[in-house]
Amino acid sequence: MDLDQSPIEVLNELRKQCPPELQEYLNTFEDLYDRKLWHQLTLKIEEFYSIPASGPFQVPLFQHFISDWEARMNKLKLVTLGLSVVKQFDDNNQALAFLTSLVEKVNTPDTRDAYVHAVMETAYIKLMLGDFEGTKSAIDECEKILDKFDSVETLIHASFYRVCAEYFKAKASFPEFYKNALLYLACINLDALTPDEKTNRAYDLAISALLGDTIYNFGELLMHPILDALTGTPHEWLRNLLFAYNAGDLAKFETLSVNFAQMPLLQDNIVFLRQKICLMSLIEAVFQRSSDNRTISFSTICSVTLLPPEEVEYLIMKALALKLIRGSIDQVREVVMVTWVQPRVLDLVQIDGMRQRLQEWDENVKKTAIIVENETPELFVQ
Description:
Blueprint: H1 7-17, H2 20-34, H3 38-49, H4 55-69, H5 75-86, H6 92-105, H7 112-128, H8 132-148, H9 154-170, H10 174-186, H11 195-211, H12 219-222, H13 236-247, H14 250-256, H15 264-267, H16 270-287, E1 295-297, H17 298-305, H18 309-321, E2 325-330, E3 335-341, H19 348-379
Helix pairs in contact: 1-2, 1-4, 2-3, 4-5, 5-6, 5-7, 6-7, 7-8, 7-9, 8-9, 9-10, 10-11, 13-14, 13-16, 16-18
């Protein structure tokens, strides 16, 4: 397309190439452009870009028509349209060059939100090209900018958390991926994801929850609808495994762990995964006890975790070091006195258990009240 063509000439050229169902859009573009109705023109172009058949015409329309009046367009809209254009490039280096120029267009004090959006999407392309340093630099820069905002559109946070998650996934940083992936899902409508995207995200979250060395509470993930995407797939056992971990169910873990053979990443970390299920069993055993009944013998922990006696004390020390519990160990009596257990997001079964314990506590309070009432008269007998 001739670079010297006027915007109207560009539209005329594209009109000749477009299928009939798109030609009316180009007529509308010309009319709104002539009348300088920039907002309405922006909305109409957004509508045009949302049509799959518009793909081959998005790049020339952006570069030779929108570029003429982009200064009058809302900059966040400009970035959003630019991100649609990027999808038309087969070469990531071309996509990077395009986005880099787009970043410069929105790099002003008044358009920091659009700037963050453009920088993060540019960072994603850099990640695809293997530029981890450039990606991390962009993440750090945008995080500082976002921290200064009182409020910002959800799509910008979604972009930030999505790219962060992809970066930490590439670096095999499981806890960081887990955190950012869940934050990303909190920023979007799950219905916007395809079934395959839902399954892939659920799979990645399950793996990161299992292998994250600081993740010992799966409640938030277990209650999230994204996990249902694994139901009915070959990876449904991962969903069941997460529930087994959350409940500290060693028997179910042993049953499901036979699937590790088909997943080298889990098989290579079998020692860690066994230790993790033992820690989860310990946490669940403490959690199931009332606060006045948390002096637990080593022998009880042996029966709960199925560990040999000589490994119990190390497990307790590991739980203390990870701050999963607080308390002290009496080596002479071979007991651990737990004063605190890490707060948890509870699943429905655990909530029911909590309800039963509250009912027991209520009954104990009533019994104590009756005893006090019966004994009180004697206090006044001379």
